[in-house]
């Protein structure tokens, strides 16, 4: 499969931003002369004061990342105001509702008015530059307005995915010390209501410092009301002026915080700043998707994830693109929905996740083939490794062989694409993220941190800084250094395993740390274990991922009950409920296996390797079990193994 190569057509290469002939030289320059390369790239955005200093970064302690440090700009100005002379009446956002009969177009001029009104309303509620604003919203245009309104006045947004539980919302509000929440009465997904206001009320029982909740009326459903704290969006926004000056922000002023799971502890607040992030997301959006003026671009992610931040909102809008926002799900009202939306809005560039592709693939080709999709030009994939079958189907059935697939590898922490094909420049191989983007220096190292050359497999690191990367963990710089720069000194460690083939193509093999990727959503095993352990009857638990046909990875939990507690199906349901309540339905364990002990070394460390093998059904290759404190544990594990369904 490493040899299977797909060349872009002449139709693609003839007008591509970057061609094969340009790629190598430009890549070399970006690595050998980052100041020159990124200095030039800075010109693509609008600065109130142009930066004279470009790169000032160190991956050695004390880790410090600064780009364009004397530049002054505003992200919302770049996404809105600067387009007004040429594009006031061009559509900035197309919103496609959960209900196929609901959609609307928002022009750049309207975007400016809506964002400015909300920004003024926030100011009227006392929000100032640097304050953190929590956004817990459905996929409606107002979610984008909320993000840009914060950016406009220099407030730092923290978007929490609407599928997270009240507990998760509470943790994130408290961690970033936010005293204002923007939400909606209810969300709507696949015809079902999501009780956002109710969840917010629940979360806020433990957040006494939240003094304002702005509630958008989305469904009109009944909600409880706290008159001292809650205000309707329309009551405080509609009367505001459509004029709101953009705050002057330093390039290194924070733009947003986004929580993400790692292998230890609670989710961490990944902090992104303004200048480098805007240059990086706008550049990658234009070059990786080969975005051409006037095209309709659709990323199916939710704005609660980094993909939504960088490639629904900031990258596309900085480029003056038309970005489609979708409220619904791929299978509602039926499995044709994605392709019907493509036809309805004449989508040219479509960006989704392998989990969605797999779910649609198994329903058969008819759902796709009965639609036209003739406008599609480029297809994208993100969130997890894409398996060969899904890639081939996406290419042949969805794209009819004419649309290059960009398999973009990146992370919340990286801000934007890192390893990815460029449609007109890099021939693709199914399942490979191919080559590094400009300015990205991947290194594959062995367990001791030795750099490996040529074809090899090991741990994926990045050797030097790029403008879009995170700057710190909010209020915990030590954790930032510890998590990303201490495993392999002087390098950014991604947590992913990776293989490089004879052609220098990169193949991401998945996480090598204790992070599980379920349908493209990241969870730390420790995070799920601590939720399970909250159940009164649970003594201890261990969670691992296992290969899952649809989700990529599923969640397999080994649970030890307290003495005197009887395992039962009822008890399993209760444990599942606890996890759903503490983290959210997206972290629901697929399998629970009762155990009386866990495989531990004599020093008490759980041997997860064995648990992973048992969960995956690879019972013939358990490896060395002689270092276990009690090797008999393994027999019981195998005897009671649950077959995932
Ligand atoms: C953007 C995003 C990051 C983790 C990452 C890796 C996995 C993302 C991938 C991919 C293989 C791709 N991942 N894209 N693996 N090929 N194209 O997903 O951010 O939610 O932080 O997840 O997702 O394991 O480390 P995030």
From TrEMBL:
SUPFAM superfamilies: Acetyl-CoA synthetase-like. One of its GO terms (molecular function) is ATP binding. GO terms for cellular component: cytosol. Its EC number is 6.2.1.1. Residues 85-471 form the AMP-dependent synthetase/ligase domain. Residues 23-79 form the Acetyl-coenzyme A synthetase N-terminal domain. InterPro entries: Ac_CoA_lig (IPR011904), ACAS_N (IPR032387), AMP-bd_C (IPR025110), AMP-bd_C_sf (IPR045851), AMP-binding_CS (IPR020845), AMP-dep_synth/lig_dom (IPR000873), ANL_N_sf (IPR042099). Its cofactor is Mg(2+). It catalyses: acetate + ATP + CoA = acetyl-CoA + AMP + diphosphate. ATP binds at residues 383-385, 407-412, 496, 511, 522. Mg(2+) binds at residues 535, 538. The modification N6-acetyllysine is found at residue 605. Catalyzes the conversion of acetate into acetyl-CoA (AcCoA), an essential intermediate at the junction of anabolic and catabolic pathways. AcsA undergoes a two-step reaction. In the first half reaction, AcsA combines acetate with ATP to form acetyl-adenylate (AcAMP) intermediate. In the second half reaction, it can then transfer the acetyl group from AcAMP to the sulfhydryl group of CoA, forming the product AcCoA. This is Acetyl-coenzyme A synthetase. It comes from Micavibrio aeruginosavorus (strain ARL-13). The lineage of its organism: Bacteria, Pseudomonadati, Bdellovibrionota, Bdellovibrionia, Bdellovibrionales.
